[in-house]
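User: Could you walk me through two proteins back to back? I'd like the raw sequence and the structure tokens for each, with a short line separating them so I can tell where one ends and the next begins.

Assistant: Of course. Protein one, sequence then structure:
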Amino acid sequence: EPTVRTELMEQIPPIAIFLQESRPKFPTAFFEYLMPIVVRYLTDVNNQVRKAGQEALLILLEQDLIAQSDIENKVCPILLDLSAPDSDDEYKVEAVNIICKMASMLSRTTVEHMLLPRFCELCSDGKLFQVRKICAANFGDICNAVGQEATERLLIPKFFELCSDSVWGMRKACAECFMAVSYTTSPEVRRSKLSPLFISLISDTCRWVRQAAFQSLGPFISTFANPSSAGLYIREDGTLSIRPSTQDVNSNSCQPSNNITLMSSSTSAT
């Protein structure tokens, strides 16, 4: 029964945590018994079971309970199969969503070598606009996961494609994550490539795209500032924050905090 399998998947993370804490007694139980179940349920015929399996997988990755070898040899291959060009549409959409969510939890090497090539392919998926939409919405997170060199070499050309997509929702998603993408690039790329691209979004024919671009204008401009002098930095939750200088803090020690937090465009509501 699908409900039984769903309930089972919900119990996998707490069992895995217990086994991790009791590892001297159960050194290989998770890898031998539970990990194969998680991987198998990612391809279950029932939608609710697959969803429970995906949630369990993300929790296990977040808790650092899956060994690097299992990530590379078991998890990534199944996700690459599910996101292949000839894969079922529903499976492909789910797979690209998981790939984007797990990118921030994996090592840069694993993401760049195993997942980045497929992500670039999915950005140009001509069959499903839902796949391209997920890629656009999570573009900033992928850039942050692979770093500046891979972003400028492989991802920026794909970002240009998405920013000129015929579906306005794609262009809107790009406008919302523009600051996060810009933050990962060099000052020269921001000036010569991203600035003209942003102008095209802020002049878009669709008012929803223009509105999203105007909301991202301030955060995008902030990426041109020198972090050491401006005090700008990106928090772990994806927000752009302005840290006041030590001199300002000392001179206003009796005043309320002047910290300003701007929501990153990658986390704004769609």
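----
Protein two, same layout:
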Amino acid sequence: EPTVRTELMEQIPPIAIFLQESRPKFPTAFFEYLMPIVVRYLTDVNNQVRKAGQEALLILLEQDLVAQSDIENKVCPILLDLSAPDSDDEYKVEAVNIICKMASMLSRTTVEHMLLPRFCELCSDGKLFQVRKICAANFGDICNAVGQEATERLLIPKFFELCSDSVWGMRKACAECFMAVSYTTSPEVRRSKLSPVFISLISDTCRWVRQAAFQSLGPFISTFANPSSAGLYIREDGTLSIRPSAQDVNANSCQPSNNVTVMSSSANAA
């Protein structure tokens, strides 16, 4: 019964955590018994079971419970098969979604060598606009996962394709993640290549694309600033933040309780 398999998948993460904590007693139980089940259920015929398997896999990766060898030898090959050009549409959409979500949890080498080539192919998928939209929405995360060199060499050309896609939702998604992509590139690429493309998004024929571009204008401009002087930096969640100056830190350290109280009161009032 699919409901039984779904329930089983939901129990995998807590069992895996227990086995990890009791590893001296069960040194190979997770890798021999549980991991094969998770991988198998990624291709289950029932979509609810597959969804539960995908969620379990992401939790296991987030908790760093999956060995690097299992990721490269068991998980990635399955995802590459599911996202292949001749794969079923539903499976392909799910696979690219997992690839995008897990990229930030894997090593840069694994992402660049095993997943990046397929991601670049999926960005140009002419059959399913849903696949291209997932790629566009997560483009900044992939750039951050592989770093500047791979971004400029392989990803930027694909990003420009998506920025001029015939589907306006694709262009809107690109405008929304423009800052994250720009942050991963060199100042010269920002100036000479990204800026003209951003101007085209601000001038787009679709008002939803223009609106998204104008909302990203400030964050995009901030990537041109020198972080050491401007105090701007990107948090782990991809949001732009301001690092307080040394003068502000010293001032706050003199009156920590008053500053914290005022900020908390304002937040509560809001």
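The chain has a mean pLDDT of 84.

Let me know if you want the two compared in more detail.
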